[in-house]
Amino acid sequence: MAEQHEEEVQISCSFVTKLPAELRVPSAPIAVPANLTRYGLSQIINHLLALDPARPFDFLIDGELLRLSLAKHLLDRHISTEAVLEIEYVPAVLPPTPKEEHPHEDWVSAIAGLASSSGSKSSGEEGPLLASGSYDGVVRLWRDGECSCSFTAHKGPIQAAVAVPSRGGEGPLLLTAGNDGAVRLWRGVAAAAAGGAAPEAAVLLKGHTDTVQGAAVAPDGNLCATGGWDSRLLLWRCGDAALAAAEAAVDEEEVEAAAAGKKKRKVANGLAVAQHVEAPRSELAGHSQCVSGAAWPTAGTLVSASWDHSVRLWDVEAATATDTFNHNKAVHCVGAAPGGAGLVAFGGAERALRVWDPRMRSGEGLAVKACSSHAGWISAVAWHPSSAHHVATASHDGTAKLWDLRTSIPLHTLEGHTDKVLSAAWVAPDQLATGGADCKLRVAEVSIGGQ
Fold first, then answer.
1. Global pTM?
2. Pfam families in the record, alphabetically (predicted)?
């Protein structure tokens, strides 16, 4: 009887969208059955727009994605069915399509997408360049399904790999960190992928006394942060600023050598073979256990995660924590919404992805919500580079999941790994790469659509 009653109820709806004019329906309210789900609503939009072929849409009510029938959604949220209901429609995210799978010699523990500064494809319409780091200490460069170059970056497992933007003509730099306590800045990565000489370790960031677990780079590339098992969160000069310092050091050494009548040191690509050593610029003190992850959403804001159960927001300029969320589990990874949207997503020694809105104060609502679906610990969080809503997670349950944070239910689950998934990264706006303890790098095509 309840279902029959729900079918009989009509709800007056006004459909709105931010999509282009050709995808906008008339805003005049229309009556729809209360038992419709997002699939039925999508059929209505397709009919009104006379789309052929049909396109799938998702629907937002008060900023939340519809995942129940209209009637159940409104009832659960105490929204009146008497007034006109405004519903926003957006393109639905289709299931990811597996694209590539590449075996490695050891666990794939770090991935970075090395997009050009413009974000567009290079000449010849080549695919995105990505770097994978593994427990054998080797970085491998991949493009269009082929490994174009591999080189030993660390003595032991690599735990972090991050692309570093550069204004130079040679393309992005690569920052790597590992169990050997070293952090290295590599140049010549794009040239190496094109068949040139192997990348050069231009700068060594020296200061950690144990495994370096996480790293993040400022939006302009000239600063980076690293965290490790020594419980330290360190800030460093990075990118073009670090390269300029390295080149200046080489020039100074050559002048001193010439004045002393000594033979010049051999150089490669304008830098001395012996890499320039950088000391930390500063330390952000506060964590009491391993600093396991970091994210740098805006120039002045850094986010860090730690096994001490906390996630912290930092004012980089003042070198002080501006906010802290104290959890009850070790936190293994963290991501932050791009462009200063404010949201922070983190995961760790539990099955739920947590989403924290630091802008929400006590008494104003739930500042942290749980998105539960994984069956194991969460090992990586990768925020989409241009969406404030879409996040990918990797888990010890052998899967990766794609989320729209406007609902607590995952959009899709990516399967294919046969062991723990250890790393995840967007290597292009439409490509998600994952790596795991099954010694495989997998790449899937994911279309977020104009969201």
1. 0.90
2. NLE, WD40
